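Cross-posting from the modeling subforum.

Setting up a comparison between two proteins and wanted a second pair of eyes on the formatting. Protein 1 (sequence, then structure tokens):
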Amino acid sequence: MEPNRRALGLVFEPFSADVPAPAHLHQHAWYQVEKGGIADFSFAYFYVQLVRYRPGAVVPLVPDSFSWRPESFDAALRASYDYFIVRSQTDRSREMFGADVAPLVHSGDWWLYQQKRAHTQVRPYTGGSS
């Protein structure tokens, strides 16, 4: 995945056989940590967090309840994202994305899809307190 892009996590299978909790629910947030950019949904949107979005950053396009209801994905938002990180036992690309999105990688229950159009870059963080 290229750095400083916008990714959306769609986790239909949040639970693991090894952990009695939804261990995979926000795993897509590692993209934001490792590559910069924006990974929706992020806790950085909430005021009670120590780490927040910098002023002027693009805020999430999905509601905070979205993590628990990925089936509520609105296809109209599809063009706002460069990548879709999906955890599902089956390929859901046809029902969710149509022809505008192409599969990049599939491993186990994880699927990575990418917009076919040109990417829009998110302003990278350059350090400092802003």
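Protein 2 (same layout):
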Amino acid sequence: MRHFRYFLVLFLVVLCLTEVLSAPAKSKKPTKALAAAAKKPPAKKPAAAPKKPVAAAKKPAAKKPAATKKPTTVKKPTTTKKPAATTKKTAATTKKPATTAKKPTTTTKPATTAKKSAATAKPATAAKKPATTAKPATPPKKPAAPACPVKSSGSKLAPRADPAEAGCAKQTTCTKCVAVKGSCGTPVCGFTEEGKCVGVSSAPAGAAKNAAECKALDAKLKENAAADAEFVTAAKNEFAKIKPHVFGTEKGLKNTSGRHLASALIAPAANKALVATRVENTDTGLSQFSTAGGKKKTTWDDDNNRYSKAEVQTMCEEAIKSVLKLKDTKTLPKGTAITSVSVRSPRGMNLCISVQGNTSVFPGSTNPTVTTPGQQCRPDAGVGDE
């Protein structure tokens, strides 16, 4: 390679000398042509060099190693035309790297792959679609319920209340009660053993709902009324024995014994101090006093016109009747054992009334109770009679 360069330099020097000697008159023009030729190659070479000079250097060494041997064969300096051809070949060889330099520009195709990768990024937008799928979460509209639903035999659901049930409370007999019909033409009322007409949606299991059941209920109520009449008579007899003790008219009665009417308790001069301990419940119409012995005494407040003696007697007889029915007996048990039962008050609430053996009847609590009338209730602690 080094010999080849020396040969080219020597050849150019010889060529220049021959041109100068052969045409002395036209020395100016060739100099311009040479100047132009000298200017052109350096302009083209820098353009080709930055593209891929490394690839251009590798190709002549790999593909044409024999080209380095040509300088040894060139010994004739007179033949000037053949070296010109070699210069053209070298120029041509220099142009080839330019074409090879363009090929790497095709390697810019990975930009399209970048687009493809960008296209592959589209599933990210697809990930947003499940968020829009939340719309089906709205439940479908339920079909409207039929106007007259039929309750299946195996259903445990309570029937819906019919608007016509509002007229049930106006009926006083079983026959008229079951005759009330709703919008579907079916009975909407039931008659209870307590003699009340209520809506079938809230009626107890034993309520009569048709004419046949009314006959059976009437027969049962007559039997109960007959049996109840016996208990009523027995309760009246039992209260007659203890009435003086409750009302404070019993002979030889102690100051704080019995006397479950407020007027009777505060009447004795010795009991005036009890007034300061009185705690009234204006809703129930009952009061509680504290005795010197630390006992709690309860009264019906007849002194404030909250109860009359007749009302108190009725409540006491009702309490005794309930105790007799619970014990299934016609006489109260002897002794001082207390049995408390719920009794309906004329003031509109249930009160817990205590029956102490066969000796006394008094309020077991000054507060109302939610216990059903006739059933046992729990009195306040410490309440009793002497």
